[in-house]
Amino acid sequence: MENLPAVLISGLTKHFGKVRALDGFDLTVQAGEVHGFLGPNGSGKTTTLRILLGLLRADSGHAELLGGDPWRDAVELHRRLAYVPGDVVLWPALSGGEAIDLLGRLRGGLDRRRKAALLERFDLDPSRKGRAYSKGNRQKVALIAALASDVELLLLDEPTSGLDPLMEAAFREVIGEERARGRTVLLSSHVLSEVEALCDKVTIIRDGRTAETGTLAELRHLTRTTISAELERGPDGLTGLTGVHDLVVDGPRVRFQVDGEHLQTVLRVLTDSGVRTLTCQPATLEELFLRHYQVAA
Amino acid sequence: MTGTLTLLRLALRRDRILLPVWITVIVGVIAASGAAIAELYPQAGQRIALGVTIGAAPALQALTGPVFDAASVGGLTAWRATTMTSVLAALMSMLTVTRHTRAEEETGRAELIGACAVGRQAVPAAAVLLAAGANMLIALLITVSLAGQGLPLAGALAFGLAVGGTGWVFTGVAVLAAQLTAYARTANAIAAAVLGLAFLLRALGDAAKVETLAWMSPLGWAQRVRAFADERWWLITLFAVAGAALVAGAALLARRRDLGSGLVPARPGVPDAAPYLRSPMALAWRLQRGSLLGWSVGFAVVGLLFGALAHSVGDIVGDNPQLAAILAAMGGAGALTDTFLAAEMGLLGLVAGAYAVQATLRLRDEESALRAEPVLATAVARRRWSLSHLGTALGGSAVVLAAGGLTAGIAHGFRIGDPVGQGVRMLGAALIQVPATWTLVGIAMLLFGLLPRLTVLAWAALLAFALLGQLGELLQLDDWVRDLSPFAHVPRALGQPVDVGPLLWLGFVTAVLLLAGMAAFQRRDVQGG
C-alpha cells in the first residue's frame, strides 16, 4: 500500500464535441508528495482534475485515484480527498461559515478547531453571505473547507488565484505543514514561482499532453534567467557564449536570457566587464512555454 | 442611455430563438381559436346558444372572463383567447425583462457592460425596449392574422392591442420588480405574484359579477377592451399609461441604488452552519424552503378567495334545470358550486406544475452555476444529490396543492356551515392533482439527465399541457392528442368515487421518467454553463 501512487493516469483522452481537451495525458503522483501541475490556460488541467473527481468521464485511457476508479468509486474516494475548484461559486443565501461546515460534513466531518484556526490564519469573516464575498474571499472559503478536513489527498485547482500576497504566503505555509503531515497534494497552477516554492515534483501539460515531468532539479534546465546589466566595458565574450540567448546590446546596457546551468560562466564574464547595475529575473512560465512552442514548431 | 441600441442588438441576438417562439405561440393560439370557432359554430344561432351556456357558467368565466358579443365569431374568439394569451404575453414580458436586467446584474455581466461607455440606465432601457417591441409585434401579428381570416379590422386591432398592452404593463411590473431585490429568481417571483393577483382579481370579479374587482386587474382591462363588441379604445391608453408609469418608477428606483444591490440591504449570516445542515437533502431544503413557503402562501390565498366565493357562484344560476344539465356536462357531475371548485382545483394543479418544474430544475441551476461541483466532489453520490432536489419538488407540489385545497374547503365550509367536512373533501380534491403534477417532475428530470442544455423544454411541456386543457375541446382535437396531457387523466368530478386507475398510471409514468432521468444523469458529464 505504501508504494501505491496516489494518482496514476496514463493515455487519458477527453473530447468536448470536436474540441480535444486531453490527448493521451500521463501523470503519476506518489503518495506523500506535493505535485505541481503546470500549464497555460485551457491546456487541460481542470479537465484532468474533474476526471479524477468522477465529474467527467474519460473517453479512453486509464485513471486511478488512491487505488480506486475515480468514476466507479467516486463516493468512497471522496471521503479521502478534498477539492478546491478553480472557479469558486458559493450559494448566495448561505454564509461562508455555513458553506465550510456543509462541505466538510458532506465529506464526512471537519475539525472545528482547525476551521477556527484557518479562519484566523486566512483572516476570513465567516458570517458574510456568499454573494457578498470578493473573488479572493470566495477562494478562501473553498480553501478552508478543504483544509479543515482530515483527508489523504488535496486536489487544488489554481488555489491562489485572487489571493493577495499576504494570503499567498499563508497558503504556502499551510501547504508546507500539510506536506510535513504526509498528505499528498496535487496543485494545478500557472504560477511557476509558487510551484517552485512548494512542489517536490512537477508535471507540465500542454494541449492535453504531458510536455515534461520530473523533479524540480530535473526540470531546472527548462528555467532561464533574464539578466539586465549596465557594464563599464563592452560585453566582450557574451556573444556566442553557450547558454546565452536573445542578447540585446544597447551601449553599456545588455539584456539577455541564460540557461540555469550556465549561469556561473556567464556571471564570471559579466564581472570581468565591470558590473555597475544588475537585475536578474527568474523565467516566467509564459517564457518557458513560449520556448516550448518554438521548439515544437 | 448611451449604448442602449447596442445592448438591444445583443439582447436580440441572445433571444433570437426564445422570443420568436413566444410570439408564435401567442399569435398561433389566437389564430387557431378564431379559425376553430368560425368552423365549429358557423351559424349565429349556434354561437348565441354557446354564449348563453357560457354566461351561466361561472367556473368557465373565472378562467376566461365574460362574453361581450356571442353573436359574432370575433366576439367568441376574444372571449376564449384574451385571458389566456394576455397571461402568456405577461409571462413572456416579465421573463424577458428579468433575464436582461436583474439576471445580468446577479451574474456580474452587467458590471462588465457598465464599465464600458454605456449609460447607467442602458441595461434596463434595452430590456424594456426589447419587451415593448415584442409586444408591439404581437399586437400587429394578431391584427393581421385575425383580419386575414375576414374578421373586422377594428376588432382585430383592439384585440391585438389588448394582448400587447397587457404585455407592456407587465414589462413595467417586471422592470420595477427587478429594482427591488438582488436575485433574478425573487424578481420573477414578485412579478409572477402580481400576475397571479391580477388573474385572481379578474377571475373573482368575472365569476361573481363584481365589476370593481375585475377593473383592478390589467387582465380585466384586456377583456373589457371589448374587441369585436363595440370597442373601448380609451382602455388602450390606460395600458400605455400604466406601463409607462411603472417603467418611470423603476427608473427612479434604479437611480437611487448601487449596481447589484436591491432595496433591502444584505444582512450578515451565521458563522457556523446549523446542526441539521449536513446532508444534500438538508441543503436542498435550505435552498428551496423560501420558494416553497412563497408558493404555499400564494396557493392558500387563492384557495381562500375561491373557496369564499364558491357558494355565491351557486346562487347565480338559481334553479333552472335545463341550465344545470348543460353545466353538469361542462365541468363535472355535481352541483354548480362543485363544478366551480373542481375547475379551480384543475387550475391549481396546472399552476403547481410550474412549481414542480421550477423546483426540479434547481438541479440544473446548481449544476450550471458550478455549485453542484463542490458538493459532488464530497462523499455525495449523484443519485443522492439528485434525489434531494427531487424530494423537495415532489413533496413541495403536494404541499402547495394541499395548502390551496385546504383553505378553499375551509373557506367554503364556513359559508355552508361545515368547515371540517369541506376542508377534508377539498384537500382530497386538491391532492388528486398531485400525480399529474408529478409527471412534470419526471419530465424535467428526464431532460436534466438526457439533455441538460435543453431543460427549458420542461416549461414548453407545461405550456403545451395548459394549452391542450384550455383549447383541446374548442379545437376538437382527437382524444389521444388531448390525452397527452397528464391533467386530462385527473378525475374532474367532486363528490364521486375516485377512479384510481389513471392516477396509478400517472404515478407509474412518473416513476419511469424519474428513473430514466437519474440513470442518464448517472452516466453523463457534470457540465457547467
In short:
The complex is a heterodimer of chains A (297) and B (529). Chain A is an alpha/beta fold and 297 residues long.
General description of the model:
The complex is a heterodimer of chains A (297) and B (529). Helix content of chain A is 33%, strand content 31%. Chain A is α/β, with parallel strands linked by helices. The longest helix of chain A is centred in the middle third of the chain and has 16 residues, at 165-180. The radius of gyration of chain A is 22 Å and the shape is globular. The radius of gyration of chain B is 23 Å and the shape is globular. In chain B, 51% of the residues are buried. Classes of the chains: A alpha/beta (297), B mainly alpha (529).
Helix content of chain B: over 70%
Backbone structural class of chain B: mainly alpha
Q: Give the biggest beta sheet of chain A.
A: 6 strands, mixed
Form type of chain B: globular
- Numbering strands along the chain, what is their spatial order in the largest sheet of chain A? 5-6-7-3-8-9
**Rounded Rg of chain A:** 22 Å
Report the β-strand fraction of chain B as a percent range: under 5%
Q: Give the % helix of chain A.
A: 25-40%
- Give the ordered list of helices and strands of chain B: HHHHHHHHHHHHHHHHHHHHHHHH
Flag low-confidence runs of chain B.
none
Number of helices of chain A: 10
Topology, number of strands of chain A:
13
Protein traits:
heterodimer, A: 297 residues, alpha/beta, 6-stranded mixed sheet, 4-stranded antiparallel sheet, 10 helices, B: 529 residues, mainly alpha
SSE layout:
The complex is a heterodimer of chains A (297) and B (529).
Chain A: E1 5-16, E2 19-30, E3 34-38, H1 45-52, E4 60-65, H2 74-78, E5 81-84, H3 96-107, H4 112-121, H5 135-147, E6 153-157, H6 165-180, E7 184-189, H7 192-198, E8 201-206, E9 209-215, H8 216-219, E10 224-231, E11 244-250, E12 253-259, H9 263-272, E13 275-282, H10 285-296
Chain B: H1 4-14, H2 18-40, H3 44-55, H4 58-64, H5 73-100, H6 102-107, H7 109-114, H8 122-148, H9 153-180, H10 184-207, H11 211-215, H12 218-224, H13 234-256, H14 280-317, H15 321-331, H16 336-360, H17 362-368, H18 372-376, H19 382-416, H20 419-431, H21 434-450, H22 457-471, H23 479-482, H24 500-523
Helix pairs in contact in B: 1-8, 2-5, 2-8, 4-10, 4-16, 5-8, 5-9, 5-10, 5-12, 8-9, 9-10, 9-12, 9-13, 10-14, 14-16, 14-19, 15-16, 16-19, 16-21, 16-22, 19-20, 19-21, 21-22, 21-24
